[in-house]
Amino acid sequence: MPEEVLQTQTEMIRGFLRETDAIAVLTGAGVSAESGIPTFRDAQTGLWARYDPMELATPQAFARDPALVSRWYDERRRKSADCEPNPGHLALTRLQEEFEAAGKHFTLITQNVDRLHQRAGSRGLLELHGTFWVWRCTSCGEEREEWEVPFPEHPPRCQCGGTRRPSVVWFGETLPESVLAAAWQAAEHCGLFLSLGTSSLVEPAASLGRVAAAAGAKTVEINPQETPLSPWVDVSVRGTTGKLLPTILSARE
Ligand code: BV8
Ligand code: ZN
User: Fold this and answer.
1) Whose atoms come closest to the Cα of 143: which ligand?
2) pLDDT tens digits for range 107-119
3) Model confidence, pTM
4) Which of 39, 55, 202, 236 to mutate to test the pocket of ligand 1 (most atoms within 8 A of CB)?
5) 114 and 235 inside one domain
């Protein structure tokens, strides 16, 4: 990406930030990449290499082999526990503080299940796909945060004797109604929509950028790769969020 193109794009985005009092941000696994967490579609390594995440992240996979799926999520929990939020996460927390101090609206919507945004200080964010730090009993439905890493047994058990599953939204499962409605609302009413580190492949999250654009918001994407959203946005920056967000979102003179 030539430096002068990035400079122009940065100026445009800073202009959008000055002009709006309502921003909606959608993040995907790419935002956690510079913390050392492989993205959802990165080739899986080690003993997971032979599994397709699209296959594992399903109710069918859990029904077929709960211990295997529980191990996969436990591995990812361990990985994220060993990682730290990166400058991209922290830049978003600063932007939220700045917008809210000025009485403006800031909504962070994430597809990520690692809770690195919360560890970076983000507040009130919308977790479209849940999190693997909360597990739910498949018998009595009790949900609770599970901080023990690694789990002593797979899958973890509930005191009622039931099996616990991660409280994430698997493929083929519907998203939490109220969370999706809030995300849709934020996309429809924002003046600026940022799509950060997502392949824009998974629905219904992938539609939010187009909802914002259709409602008249300025739209920006930051991703080292082109995505299906790229042709729709006002500014599509080829780059990584950990490196670019601190500069692009820094206090604008
Ligand atoms: C549903 C939780 C009702 C589990 C996940 C309409 C059309 C077609 C299909 C469908 C449709 N509606 C529904 C579907 C089916 C399906 C779907 O979307 N399939 C797609 C793939 C074809 N959707 C569903 O099933 C959803 N449920 O709609 O219910 C229904 C049901 C059935 C049929 C109809 C309706 C539920 C979807 C939620 C699935 N659960 N996660 C877990 O994590 O284990 S989704 C999973 O993908 C992760 O959460 C992940 O966050 C998400 C999206 O991926 P990304 O975050 O974008 O990550 P990815 O690896 O793909 O990309 C990373 C990006 O970062 C890349 O672009 C890369 O270039 C970039 N990057 C890399 N490094 C950096 C970077 N960017 C910036 N900086 C860097 N350093
Ligand atoms: Zn139970």
Assistant:
1) 2
2) 999 999 999 999 9
3) 0.97
4) 202
5) yes
